[in-house]
Amino acid sequence: MPTENQPPIRCALYIRVSTRDQRYLQQFRELRAAVEARGWSVARVYRERRSAAAGTDRPEWRRLQHDAQLRRFGAVAAASLDRIGRSALDILKAVADFRDRGIRLYLQREGLSTDDATGQLMITVLAGVAQLERDLISERTKQGMRAARHRGKAIGRPTLRIPADDLESLRSGTTTAAALARLHGVNTTTIRRRLSAHLKGGTESRYESPKKAIDRTYRAPRT
To answer: What integer pLDDT is reported at residue 207 of this predicted model?
Structure first.
């Protein structure tokens, strides 16, 4: 908490929501209120809209790290530990980078800050526990899939089967790949793959190479 003679600490808010999450304003208001309750002022807001499947591609996080190098704020606040990174290594690296630059990290849900050694220790422990939990969930999932395969149960999305008549219509030019794609709810690349597989499985007299068949089907001059 700054004293009366000290200006408030400038804090950056990092808000990450999934592509389906519409609670950005709620997260922003709660985080801003928590920061202001500590006597800090909001300097910048970095809004990331990425799902978990987006992996490590976080342009706003990279921009925040760049601004941290330029000392554009003295603290970073996030809603929770998992907003900072998806692995213990990512989280601990972020904590170390901020510490080396003299920047504090505050996590609202956990109520932790790197202002003191106790807060840094707790964040390190929680990051390790979160990583262990994710690893255990992943291992249980893999074990369940192995057990299902052992019982002969198919795993994953069922294979789409395109009727041979439809592929023959495409081969003869009476229909188009786009029309078949719309009919079966797939893209044209899938239709091309099925056509190639269909041609490879044909008789010797009817066979032509997939490349020639595709060129003939898709590169025919328009009338």
So the answer is: 39
To the query of whether residue 18 is one of the catalytic residues in this protein, the response is yes
Indicate whether this model's pTM tops 0.70: no
Residue 45 sits at φ, ψ, to 5 deg, of -125, 130
Q: Which residues of the chain have pLDDT under 70?
A: 1-5, 19-22, 50-56, 117-121, 123-124, 126-135, 153-160, 202-223
Q: d(Cα 93, Cα 101) in Å, to the nearest integer?
A: 12
Inside any domain, residue 51: yes
Q: What is the pLDDT of residue 156?
A: 60
Boundary residue ending a domain (133, 155, 173)? 133
Average pLDDT taken over every residue of the chain: 76
Structural domain harbouring 194: 164-218
Number of domains in the chain: 2
So what's the pLDDT on residue 162? Answer: 81
Rounded to whole angstroms, the Cα distance separating 99 from 115 reads: 10
Pair 127, 81: CB distance under 8 Å: yes
**Residue type for position 97:** D
187 and 101 inside one domain: no
Q: Which of 18, 80, 87, 169 is catalytic?
A: 18
